[in-house]
Amino acid sequence: MNKKALLPGVFLPLMMGSAALTNTLRNPRMEGVHTVDILSIFAAGLCFGAAFVSLVRILRGKA
User: Fold this and answer.
1) Which positions ≥6 away from 25 have C-beta within 8 Å?
2) Distance from C-alpha of 32 to C-alpha of 52, rounded to nearest angstrom
3) Three-state DSSP string of 26-43
4) 3-state per-residue secondary structure call for 3-23
5) What DSSP character marks residue 49?
6) Whole-prediction pTM value?
7) Are 8 and 2 in contact (CB under 8 A)?
């Protein structure tokens, strides 16, 4: 896979995820949540995303 094909696959989900995270953090219900809790949820999502990408690569035979 060349680099030009890889860039949209990285930046498009990153932009969509940033927009969703910003929208969630502006929610009034999130005011009572501590920063550490938000970072731990973000880190957990990052780990699950990496695991999902690894699983897809294994199933497609590109690992």
Assistant:
1) 38
2) 31
3) CCHHHHHCCHHHHHHHHH
4) HHHHHHHHHHHHHHHHHHHHH
5) H
6) 0.54
7) no
Q: Which two tokens stand for residue 15?
A: 């932009």
Residue of 9, 8, 7 whose CA lies nearest to 53:
9
Can you give the length of the chain in residues? Answer: 63
**Per-residue model confidence as pLDDT tens digits over 3-38:** 565 566 667 777 887 888 788 778 888 778 888 888
Distance in angstroms (rounded) separating the CA atoms of residues 60 and 24: 33
DSSP single-letter state for residue 61: T
Cα distance between residue 50 and residue 15, in whole Å? 17
